[in-house]
Amino acid sequence: MIVVGAVAAVALVAVEPARRVSLVAAIRRLSAGSERIDVDGELLVLSRLVLLALGAGSTLPGAIRAAAAELPGPVAYDALDVLRRSTVGGAVGFADATGPSRPLFVAIGRAATTGAPMTPAVARLVEELHDARRARAVAAGRRLPVKLLFPLALLILPGFLLMTLGPTVVDGLRRLVP
After folding, report:
1. CA nearest 43: which of 77, 17, 18?
2. What angle do CA 12, 26, 51 make, to 5 degrees?
3. Shortest CA distance to 95 belongs to which of 81, 76, 84, 108?
4. Residue 158, SS3 per DSSP
5. For residues 39 and 122, what is the distance between their CA atoms, to the nearest angstrom?
6. Residue 28: pLDDT band by 50, 70, 90 thresholds?
7. Burial (CB count within 10 angstroms: exposed 0-12, middle 13-18, buried 19+), residue 9
8. Within this chain, do residues 109 and 49 fall inside the same structural domain, yes or no?
9. Domain containing 77: what range?
10. d(CA 102, CA 94)
């Protein structure tokens, strides 16, 4: 694991800046192992931080930079990459963004194209992301009893029956056999 980290660090320094973002994301995915990176959760946090910064009066690039600085992950790296690539086209160029932070930049790009304020657009996105995350959690909660049925029926219930009826059966067999 240490060797992989050292090789990744050397590769990160040697790679040109345009490809660093995808390399860092790939390294994080490989080193995460069993931990799954919650991209949707990171996007929600990034969007909330951008909303807070915009509400505090920050400029759009400043809000994205400040939010990405607080969130180490593939969504933050992607957001900084999109921001760096769109300095020429401005906020209107955000609508063409790809990657995990795409929904945030599509909302911002749409607001910039129509001339609408950015804060309500980002607030709507935060609500949509929050509602989608809650719906996934509720669906996972509804599937939980079905997933627990197999261990309950095949592992726990027989053990409970053996524990409760076992002494009675053993005592009955002792009385039958002299």
Report:
1. 77
2. 95
3. 108
4. helix
5. 17
6. very low
7. exposed
8. yes
9. 38-133
10. 8
Q: Are residues 123 and 86 in the same domain?
A: yes
Cα–Cα distance for residue pair 78/109, rounded to 1 Å: 16
Q: How many CA atoms lie within 13 A of 122 on its CB side?
A: 24
Q: With contact defined as beta carbons under 8 Å apart, do 119 and 48 qualify?
A: no
Q: In whole angstroms, how large is the CA radius of gyration of the chain?
A: 26
pLDDT attached to residue 4: 38
Q: Mean pLDDT, to the nearest integer, of 140-159?
A: 87
Do 88 and 13 fall into the same domain? no
Q: How far apart are CA 106 and CA 149, in angstroms?
A: 43
> Which pair of tokens denotes residue 36?
């799954």
Residue 66: count other Cβ atoms within 10 Å of its Cβ: 15
Average pLDDT (151-163) is 86
Number of domains within the chain: 2
Domain annotation covers residue 171: no
